[in-house]
Design brief:
- The protein is of the alpha/beta class and 288 residues long.
- It folds into 2 domains: 44 residues; 242 residues, Vaccinia Virus protein VP39 (Rossmann fold, 3-Layer(aba) Sandwich).
- 39% of the residues lie in helices and 13% in strands.
- It contains 9 helices and 7 strands.
- A 7-stranded mixed beta sheet has the order 3-2-1-4-5-7-6.
- Strand 1, helix 3 and strand 2 form a beta-alpha-beta unit.
């Protein structure tokens, strides 16, 4: 019996080591492929801002792109991000650690409770506001204006939107109410290459069902944003997020065509795994 026990333990250990080695190889391959794609882009489009991509806390490489954009655009370090889950993998945690102020909006109350527990409450010295709300056309303008009031500002530097569904309609509602952030980061459905236009039907109760029925194509966004005086700056290499800048800043950046900017969805690059397990502990220290 003792011999059988030790044999079982040895087999379990071998399986653990095998799994660890496999994950390690996958991460090495992911990094190599990302760097290969970046090198390819560097040769063809050397001024594409996707080249600045790197991950700190974002899902993939959005942190680096956002950081570089705001080296060029004057700003008051304010953001609103919608769709952050527990906050440990979003586009604004790194900004908070760099002294920005912002609003996190999350529709799932259980995630908001996790955030408040991790941060020891919800009183954050006017640096962070956490809103538990399921975003619809009917409430987005109110939430946006409340965010501006929190900052005591009349415009926003960065708006990041990822709700896997009605994103197009939320942006359309903001623009129709003359709300124009300087920079907008939005998830697009990269399955559809420009100039293919496609978007889901509006459903205020829409929740992503893990299928390809989500959001809208890049071309749908480009047409909407162009109407309201925005320019497509770049799409990140994994093919998840598109970055648009207001036209009063467009002259600061090299302009490429939509087809040159478009990136297909590279599921094997999302999420990018980097370093130790992320947490909100640095943010907790800052907010105390």
């Amino acid at each position: 019996m003792i011999k059988s026990f030790f044999k079982s333990q040895a087999e379990n250990f071998q399986r653990f080591i095998g799994t660890y080695d496999l994950v390690k190889v996958q991460r090495i391959q992911q990094e190599a492929e990302y760097n290969r794609l970046k090198h390819e882009m560097q040769l063809k489009y050397p001024d594409n801002f996707a080249l600045y991509g790197h991950k700190i806390y974002s899902q993939t490489d959005e942190d680096g792109i956002i950081e570089e954009i705001f080296k060029y655009i004057p700003n008051n370090k304010t953001f609103l991000e919608i769709g952050i889950q527990t906050g440990i993998e979003c586009n604004s945690l790194y900004l908070l650690l760099k002294g920005w102020r912002g609003t996190w909006v999350e529709g799932d109350s259980k995630y908001c409770k996790i955030i408040e527990k991790e941060l020891n409450g919800n009183n954050f010295k006017n640096k962070l506001s956490i809103v538990n709300s399921f975003i619809q056309r009917d409430n987005i303008v109110k939430i946006f204006n409340e965010s501006l009031a929190f900052f005591e500002m009349n415009e926003l530097d960065l708006f990041s939107l990822d709700i896997d569904g009605n994103d197009f309609y939320i942006l359309e509602e903001l623009f129709s109410n003359s709300i124009f952030p300087k920079v907008i980061c939005v998830e697009y459905n990269a399955k559809f290459h420009p100039p293919h236009k496609l978007k889901i039907q509006y459903n205020k109760s829409h929740v992503w069902d893990q299928t390809d029925y989500m959001g809208c194509s890049l071309q749908e966004y480009v047409d909407l944003f162009t109407t309201f005086n925005y320019t497509l700056l770049c799409c990140n290499i994994p093919g998840i997020n598109a970055f648009f800048i207001r036209n009063d800043f467009a002259s600061l950046f090299k302009k490429y065509t939509v087809s040159e900017i478009y990136q297909p969805y590279r599921y094997y690059l999302s999420p990018i795994v980097q370093g130790h397990k992320p947490s909100l502990k640095y943010l907790r220290d800052i907010l105390q």
